[in-house]
Amino acid sequence: xxxxxxxxxxxxxxxxxxxxxxxxxxxxxxxxxxxxxxxxxxxxxxxxxxxxxxxxxxxxxxxxxxxxxxxxxxxxxxxxxxxxxxxxxxxxxxxxxxxxxxxxxxxxxxxxxxxxxxxxxxxxxxxxxxxxxxxxxxxxxxxxxxxxxxxxxxxxxxxxxxxxxxxxxxxxxxxxxxxxxxxxxxxxxxxxxxxxxxxxxxxxxxxxxxxxxxxxxxxxxxxxxxxxxxxxxxxxxxxxxxxxxxxxxxxxxxxxxxxxxx
Length: 262
What we know:
Elements: H1 4-21, H2 26-40, E1 48-54, H3 62-74, E2 79-85, H4 101-113, E3 123-126, E4 130-133, H5 137-147, E5 155-163, E6 167-175, E7 182-196, E8 204-219, E9 224-230, E10 241-248, E11 254-261
Parallel strand pairs: 1-2
Antiparallel strand pairs: 1-3, 3-4, 5-6, 6-9, 7-8, 7-10, 10-11
């Protein structure tokens, strides 16, 4: 179980700073977008994968969610942003509709890999190789600059994507070494606004972007193949979704990525 006392003691100062820096006004959002726009010119042929572990029940998460949206809009091609909603904040009065215990387990595996003693939110994982506080603008910009200069080991492409009412089917092709690697297929809900009635964010309207709603792992024994991922019922008719594919090695480092908007 996540230790809230530990969270408060470690991140109280950070929370106070974020409260000052991050407002909900459109003016602040424009400033952030401009800052990242300046940085986007530095993006090279590398790709960056940012996995945010967040919750609608966490009062420190909305700034990270807003930052994720800014990054998504600023880097539409070479940066992959995902929002995993964990379930360990549900006990304080608001059950996050996107939360999943499997995402909490996923976060724990990452932190075990990093030899970090526990989960926290908002936590951002970069290319499966390091973690940081997901609302720290400076560190996130530095991470994007750093990893955008490192080309992935695998070139991954998606084709033949078809969306029906219940599932998404696709074809993929991989260039590069695939030994001891697997493919992670992720289905994202592009955007959803939620009125939170209870918990730490009660009476707030929260906007989440690139919400993970389904995830499947597939063996990667050949350099090409087909896959299928089901569309869960939480996705409403007419809502936009995105398919992302990632190649991972045995250490959960991401070595290739591709996406398709549906």
